[in-house]
Design goal:
Elements lengths: L3 E9 L6 H10 L5 E2 L14 E3 L13 H6 L2 H16 L4 E5 L4 E4 L7 E6 L5 H12 L1 H6 L5 H11 L9 H5 L3 H10 L5 E4 L5 H14 L5 E9 L6 H8 L25 E2 L1 E10 H6 L6 E10 L12 H13 L9 E3 L6 H15 L4 E3 L2 H4 L6 H15 L1 E2 L13 E2 L4 E2 L4 E7 L4 E8 L2
Parallel strand pairs: 3-9, 6-7, 6-8, 12-13, 12-17, 13-15
Antiparallel strand pairs: 1-10, 1-11, 2-3, 4-5, 8-10, 11-18, 14-16, 17-18
Length: 443
């Protein structure tokens, strides 16, 4: 079995447009949270008032032109941006092959031994919403010319529809379009897969790439998770809001508080992308790559309990973590740090905390990255994996924001902590009942 290492990371998140911005915000304790767009209230009356929006993006910095952006769903654009950062950090030269087609090769990488494994919860849902909005409102647009100015202005403000139907919409809404676009763009002809396991999608994608490299099926992979949920009408937000999963705390500075006794739901995020370059140890050493850490194991389990609710017994989460330790040849005492799923919902946090307490006691420091950037759904597991890698590299564990009153018997990090991290776990749970966890180790 091949050993698998991380050699590059790239991130677009509500905390910034690169890994360094995200990490600095976490270490400084600067959360991303803002009031939801005012025009969303034209369509519904939300119970939750806040979200974590993405910062302004500059796709051209990653070589994505304005025209190209119109042909790609935002998830693909985020994926390309994060991939370019990860490849550059891994010291891989991106060589342009065809300027018109925007195709490249990766210097020194065998394309048939290199692949892409991506995770996403809903893929190109926003492109679907926007194209359908144009389609459905076509008759209304045709009547605008006959309206008086006041009526026309009001109607146009409600429509929020694009000026034209996007002819590329079919290739934009496919969940596998993100992995496919990355494979085409960088000429990677090995394994190309898409994992869609809701909030655990990024973790499962990384696990899939890890296992393929471990088995010797490929030497190199771009792997991660991506999501974009900011549709112009707030319809995706409304779905979570109606389900009662979002925080309804009215004070912005207190709204997002995983593991705190006063938690009342998660902070909805506009999205993001976490991308990691994974390689076999022998491949990385051969090309003199910077090795950030090693992936020691991946495990997963399934609750078979409820489509939207975690099993309150936590039995399958316990089994997943027990399996992870066994396959990695580690004991609970070896684990320094756990980047928890930590959404901020009552049941999820309670079950997760109890399982951690029973398996690890207070031996492992615990935090929630979602306490700073909200829940990015399919991107969450990959972004949190990157934070775990950085915690190992920098011997630093960021605080869990707003965890002021914690009744659970676990070691929640309340102030940024500087300690050596030898072995760390990043774990994700998802609607549908999928649980996934990765174990990272310092080299």
């Amino acid at each position: 079995m091949e050993r698998v290492v991380v050699t590059g990371t790239g991130a677009i998140s509500p905390l910034g447009c690169c890994v360094d911005d995200m990490w600095n915000a976490l270490c400084k304790g600067t959360p991303a949270i803002d009031t939801i767009p005012s025009w969303w209230r034209n369509y519904f009356s939300p119970k939750s008032s806040f979200w974590a929006p993405l910062p302004p993006l500059d796709p051209s910095a990653a070589g994505v032109s304005r025209v190209e952006s119109m042909k790609l769903d935002r998830t693909a654009v985020l994926g390309i941006m994060a991939a370019v950062e990860a490849l550059r950090q891994a010291n891989i030269e991106i060589v342009l092959q065809d300027k018109r087609k925007k195709t490249h090769t990766l210097q020194g990488i065998d394309p048939h031994r290199a692949g892409v494994c991506m995770g996403t919860g809903v893929g190109g849902a926003c492109s679907l919403v926007e194209s359908q909005a144009h389609h459905i409102t076509t008759p209304v647009h045709e009547q605008l010319a006959s309206m008086d100015e006041e009526a026309r202005t009001h109607t146009e403000s409600l429509l929020q529809a694009p000026a034209r139907f996007n002819p590329f919409v079919v290739s934009m809404i496919m969940p596998n379009a993100i992995a496919a676009q990355l494979g085409i763009r960088f000429g990677l002809k090995g394994k190309n897969s898409t994992n869609s396991t809701a909030c655990a999608s990024g973790t499962f994608a990384l696990g899939s790439a890890f296992q393929a490299i471990q088995r010797g099926e490929m030497d190199f992979a771009l792997a991660g998770g991506v999501e974009f949920l900011g549709d112009p009408y707030g319809g995706i937000f409304r779905g979570f809001d109606t389900a009662g999963t979002l925080t309804d705390i009215p004070q912005k500075e207190r709204a997002n508080r995983p593991f705190d006794s006063d938690r009342r739901g998660f902070l909805f995020s506009e999205g993001g992308c976490g991308m990691l370059v994974l390689e076999s140890l022998s491949h990385a050493e051969k090309r003199g790559a910077p090795i950030l850490c090693e992936i020691s194991g991946f495990s997963h389990s399934y609750d078979a309990h409820n489509i939207m609710m975690i099993d309150k017994e936590g039995t399958e989460i316990t089994r997943m973590l027990t399996d992870l330790l066994a396959m990695s040849n580690r004991s609970p005492q070896d684990i320094t740090y756990i980047n928890a799923h930590g959404t901020g919902t009552h049941l999820n946090d309670a079950v997760e905390a109890r399982v951690i307490s029973q398996l690890f006691g207070r031996n492992a420091a615990v935090n929630s990255t979602k306490s700073y950037m909200g829940h990015t759904i399919g991107a969450a597991g990959a972004l949190e994996a990157i934070v775990t890698v950085l915690s190992i590299r920098h011997a630093t564990i960021h605080a869990s924001h707003n965890a002021e009153s914690v009744s659970d018997d676990i070691d929640i990090v309340q102030k940024c902590r500087h300690i050596p991290v030898d072995h760390a776990i990043s774990q994700s749970f998802a609607f549908g009942g999928n649980n996934g966890a990765l174990l990272f180790s310092r080299r």
